[in-house]
Every structure is written in structure tokens, then in C-alpha cells.
């Protein structure tokens, strides 16, 4: 690991924490982040030449696996025609037409450059469209780092939001209220306490930033009803679930229509792309057709659009991709449950389809308070031993494992065998 260690020492001198995104620094699991040099399919290689089976997949974009030939070819061709024009291109139209054809109820989308930008813009649009200022989010759900989303509740769910980060003014946080995931009553209470002031309820339809927590039966349907009864918009943050759960994302998967959806990750095929969209009647409030301003120099970048178009085209035309990634996720989950049984390990497997998580707690995990009961020290020991054995999972208990069409049953079997060895080492 010498080369990664040397690179990290250099990185720490010129980049805050040595990384360009905090979770990459391995702070919650200890040790030195691996500097990656290349990837192909389900594999990553680090600067010291060590090979890993990758379950981070760049945090979700790599649903077809790394460096899929069809995406590489599309990017290379687009790059030869020019990297950026700052003018409309046919490719942006093709991506928007494909996205709106794949997602029921998605009539119009605007491209941005990240999930954060997509959420920030969708929240501004909801406020502009409804003329209301307050937004309800859920403890443990992450929606990017825009000021009004970096908020946690004070004690209980009734107090106004307080900043979750230095630099977020109290004024930016005060209009963000926090409810309890999987508890629609906590939302109803906030709506009642703030009658007529709530612009939107924003939710990760499958929460994947506090580990993976699936919505309880009826939870999303109740949010839809509460929003309708209170003149608030329902925003599904589908940056992770969009085009992953199925072509139509969580709206199709759970049969619940959101008023606005945000996207990222998969729609960029590995390039920096975000998007937000919904009914035309709402989206037409966005400049230049409407009075809600949002802009971006590289929005709809032609090379990024080529990557996204290539990936979305495969997902749209080859339903076997979803069958495959869901099967592999299920295989992993079943295997881990057998190991938990074998070692009587205090662990719980959660998730859906190709989005899975192993919580290091034996309690049921339905919300953030439950997730926080996890034994993060034991998780760190497990993580580091699996890493040593060549299995690259998210360096935090509060993230997801992603399965791609490039993973194989042999990959899953090898991963479960390594987990068996690791449990034998740490669970006694
Ligand atoms: P970005 O700005 O990182 O593209 O997207 C923010 C975002 C918005 N909404 C959801 C549901 C998200 O999961 C994310 C970003 N996800 C994290 C992984 N849990 C990104 C990894 C990182 O921060 O480095």
C-alpha cells in the first residue's frame, strides 16, 4: 500500500483532508484510502497494483460496471467533436426525451452537474411554485450539500432545523424541518404545526445515505396523501434510486407519483451529471420560461450527455440488466443472512434489488435512530479485513453496496467466502 500511502501524504498537503469528497478519506474506518488507477467491469486496481471487486461503483453510477465499451465509445466519439460549447446540442434533447420516455409522469427535465445542484434547484422551484418557504426532510436522508439541506432537527421532530455544518447560516436552516423516516405521523405533525407554510416534502424513496433503509408499506403513499392535503409538493430524491430500482425508478417501483424528482449518478454514466424534472406545469416555472432562476456553464455538457445517453439506452433496451443486478443483490443478501445465522452475528441485512447494506446491529433498522445503534467499530474491523482480502465496500457503515451488470455469481460467491473467513476472525 506504499504508493497509496505516499500519494495520500502528498494529497493532504494540497487538498483538504487529502480528498475531494469527505467519505473517501476512510475517516470512519481508519487506515489509508486506496488511490485507484483504473477500473474495468466489477474490478478496481489501486496504485500498488492490488485488485478489488468493487461494491461502491463510484457511489452508484457504474450500474453497467466500470468502463463499459458502449459508454467509452460514445464518450470518445463525442469528445472528438468538441468538449463543451455552452450552446444547445441534439444530445441533450435525446437524453431528455429518453428520460421522460422511461419514467412515468416525468414530462420535462433540466440538466445540471451534480445531485446537489439537482436538489438545490428542485427545492428552489418548489418554493417558487408554491410561494411557501418551509421544506420537510428526514433525519438521516442526504440530499447533497446545499445550505438548506445540511440541516438536522433539534431534539424531537418539532423544532426548527439547525445547521449540520459550519458556514450554514441559521437563516438558511430555519426553514428546513426534519421528520422521522418511515413515520408519516411525524410529517403530519409538522404539516399541522406549520399549516400553509410547507412548500415541499423531500425524501429518498429508499434511504441510502444512512445505510440502506427501505420504505415501510404505505409510507410513501401516506406522504403523497399528506402533500395533496396540504398543498405541498412531494419531491423524490432519486439520485441513487433513479434508473436503478427499475427503468422508472422509485415512482414506478413503489407506484407513487412525485411532483418533482431529482437524478444524478446513473444518468451521467460516470460523468458529472444531475437533473431534476416533473410535470410541465411545474417545470415551466424555471427560467427562461418561468421566474425561478437556475443556470450552469457545463449543464448538458456534450461529452457527459454522450455517456449518460449510452448508459440509459442500454437500461432502456435491455431489461435483463435489472434482472441480473437484482439477482446478484439478492444472492449477496441471502448469503450474508446465512453467515449471520452461522456466526449468530449481531448484524442485519437490508436493502432492495441491487442496493444493499449490512448493519452491524441485530435490531430492526427503520430510521436514523435505529441505524445509529450500529457498532461502527466492528464494522470498521470487518471493512478493513475485507479490503485486505480484495473486496472494496463503502468505507462507512452509513452507505450502500451497489451491484452492477458486470458483477458475476462467482464474484458474489468469492465475496461471501471472504466474509465467512472475516466473521470467523472477528466474531469470536
Ligand atoms: P452529488 O452532489 O454528490 O452528485 O449528489 C448528492 C446526493 C443527492 N441525493 C442523494 C440521495 C445522494 O445519495 C447524493 C450523493 N450520494 C453520496 C453517496 N452516499 C455521494 C458520495 C460522496 O459524497 O462522495
Question: What does this entry look like structurally?
Answer:
The structure is a single chain. The chain has 428 residues and is of the alpha/beta class. The protein folds into two domains: 2-67 and 319-426, Aspartate Aminotransferase, domain 1 (Alpha-Beta Complex); 69-317, Type I PLP-dependent aspartate aminotransferase-like (Major domain) (Aspartate Aminotransferase, domain 2), CATH 3.40.640. The protein is built from 14 helices and 16 strands. The chain has helices at residues 2-14, 69-80, 90-102, 115-130, 170-173, 184-193, 219-230, 249-254, 280-283, 302-317, 320-343, 368-371, 376-388, 409-426, and strands at residues 36-40, 43-46, 51-54, 108-112, 134-138, 151-152, 162-163, 176-179, 198-203, 233-237, 260-263, 274-278, 348-352, 355-359, 391-392, 401-402. α7 links the parallel β9 and β10 (233-237). α3 runs parallel beside α10 (302-317), α6 (184-193) runs parallel beside α7 and α11 packs parallel to α14 (409-426). The protein starts with a helix and ends with a helix. Bound molecules: ligand KE4.
Notable traits:
single chain; about 425 residues; Aspartate Aminotransferase, domain 1; 7-stranded mixed β-sheet; 4-stranded mixed β-sheet; 16 strands; globular; binds ligand KE4
Amino acid at each position: 500500500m506504499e504508493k497509496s500511502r505516499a500519494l495520500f501524504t502528498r494529497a493532504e498537503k494540497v487538498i483538504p483532508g487529502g480528498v475531494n469528497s469527505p467519505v473517501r478519506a476512510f475517516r470512519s474506518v481508519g487506515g489509508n484510502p486506496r488511490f485507484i488507477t483504473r477500473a474495468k467491469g466489477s474490478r478496481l486496481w489501486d496504485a500498488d497494483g492490488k485488485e478489488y471487486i468493487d461494491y461502491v461503483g463510484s457511489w452508484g453510477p457504474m450500474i453497467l460496471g466500470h468502463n463499459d465499451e458502449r459508454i467509452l465509445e460514445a464518450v470518445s466519439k463525442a469528445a472528438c467533436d468538441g468538449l463543451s460549447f455552452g450552446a444547445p446540442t441534439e444530445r441533450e434533447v435525446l437524453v431528455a426525451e429518453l428520460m421522460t420516455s422511461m419514467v412515468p409522469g416525468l414530462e420535462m427535465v433540466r440538466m445540471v452537474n451534480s445531485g446537489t445542484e439537482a436538489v438545490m434547484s428542485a427545492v428552489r422551484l418548489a418554493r417558487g411554485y408554491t410561494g411557501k418557504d418551509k421544506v420537510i426532510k428526514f433525519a438521516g436522508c442526504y440530499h447533497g450539500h446545499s445550505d438548506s439541506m445540511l440541516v438536522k432537527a433539534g431534539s424531537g421532530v418539532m423544532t426548527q432545523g439547525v445547521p449540520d455544518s459550519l458556514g450554514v447560516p441559521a437563516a438558511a436552516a430555519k426553514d428546513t424541518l426534519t421528520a422521522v423516516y418511515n413515520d408519516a405521523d411525524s410529517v403530519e405533525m409538522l404539516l399541522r404545526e406549520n399549516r400553509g407554510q410547507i412548500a415541499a416534502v423531500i425524501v429518498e424513496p429508499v434511504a441510502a445515505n444512512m445505510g440502506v433503509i427501505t420504505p415501510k408499506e404505505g409510507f410513501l403513499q401516506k406522504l403523497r396523501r399528506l402533500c395533496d392535503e396540504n398543498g405541498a409538493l412531494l419531491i423524490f430524491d432519486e439520485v441513487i434510486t433513479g434508473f436503478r430500482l427499475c427503468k422508472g425508478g422509485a415512482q414506478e417501483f413503489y407506484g407513487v407519483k412525485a411532483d418533482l424528482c431529482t437524478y444524478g449518478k446513473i444518468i451521467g454514466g460516470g460523468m458529472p451529471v444531475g437533473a431534476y424534472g416533473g410535470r410541465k406545469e411545474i417545470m415551466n416555472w424555471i427560467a427562461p420560461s418561468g421566474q425561478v432562476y437556475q443556470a450552469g456553464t457545463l449543464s448538458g455538457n456534450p461529452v457527459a450527455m454522450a455517456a449518460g445517453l449510452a448508459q440509459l439506452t442500454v437500461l432502456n433496451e435491455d431489461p435483463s440488466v435489472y434482472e441480473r443486478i437484482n439477482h446478484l443483490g439478492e444472492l449477496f443478501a441471502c448469503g450474508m443472512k446465512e453467515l449471520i445465522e452461522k456466526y449468530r452475528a449481531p448484524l442485519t441485512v437490508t436493502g432492495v434489488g441491487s442496493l444493499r447494506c449490512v448493519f452491524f446491529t441485530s435490531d430492526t433498522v427503520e430510521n436514523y435512530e435505529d441505524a445509529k445503534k450500529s457498532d461502527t467499530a466492528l464494522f470498521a474491523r470487518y471493512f478493513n479485513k475485507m479490503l485486505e482480502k480484495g473486496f472494496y465496500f463503502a468505507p462507512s457503515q452509513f452507505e450502500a453496496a451497489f451491484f452492477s451488470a458486470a458483477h458475476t455469481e462467482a464474484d458474489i460467491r468469492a465475496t461471501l467466502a471472504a466474509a465467512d473467513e472475516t466473521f470467523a476472525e472477528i466474531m469470536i
